[in-house]
Amino acid sequence: MIYFTQLIYIKPGREAVFHQFEDIAIPLIEKHNGKLLLRCRPGEGSFIETSYGQPYEIHLVSFESPEDFRNFANNPDRQSYLHLKEESVEKVVLIEGKMV
């Protein structure tokens, strides 16, 4: 099992475009042996300290294997909508981890 945490930073005013991409991408996770374990949109009061800015959303996902994650990332349906992600996302911090 492999885990990924994403800190997702959105370009100002591009939230609706980001949601369009997520409406396509999130259902594909399960089709590739993955699970969306956490999706949160923390408010400003949720942060005690940050030197990297406040993400718009935080996702925690798991996949059975690195290959399953690659298959998800390269899914043709997801790929055809990447322009929405590129249009709306300023940056993503992707953290790979494991259960301890």
Q: Which helices and strands appear, and what pairs or packs with what?
A:
Layout: E1 2-10, H1 15-30, E2 34-40, E3 57-63, H2 66-73, H3 76-80, H4 82-88, E4 89-97
Helix pairs in contact: 1-4
What descriptors fit this protein?
36% helix; globular; alpha+beta; 4 strands; 32% strand; Alpha-Beta Plaits; 100 residues; four-stranded antiparallel sheet
Textual characterization of the structure:
- This protein has a single domain (2-58, 65-97), classed as Alpha-Beta Plaits, CATH 3.30.70.100.
- It has 100 residues and is an alpha+beta fold.
- The chain is built from 4 helices and 4 strands.
- It has helices spanning 15-30, 66-73, 76-80, 82-88, and strands at residues 2-10, 34-40, 57-63, 89-97.
- Strands 2-3-1-4 form a 4-stranded antiparallel sheet.
CATH topology type: Alpha-Beta Plaits
Cα Rg: 14 Å
Average per-residue pLDDT, rounded, comes to 96
**Low-confidence parts, pLDDT < 50 over ≥5 residues?**
none
Q: How many distinct folded domains? A: 1
What's the total helix number?
A: 4
Structural class: alpha+beta
Distance between the termini: 11 Å
| Overall form | globular
Q: Which strand order do you get reading across the main beta sheet?
A: 2-3-1-4
**Secondary-structure element pattern, one letter each:** EHEEHHHE
Strand content: 25-35%
Sheet bearing the most strands, described? 4 strands, antiparallel
The first-level CATH class is given as: Alpha Beta
Number of extended strands? 4
Helix content: 25-40%
CATH architecture, please?
A: 2-Layer Sandwich
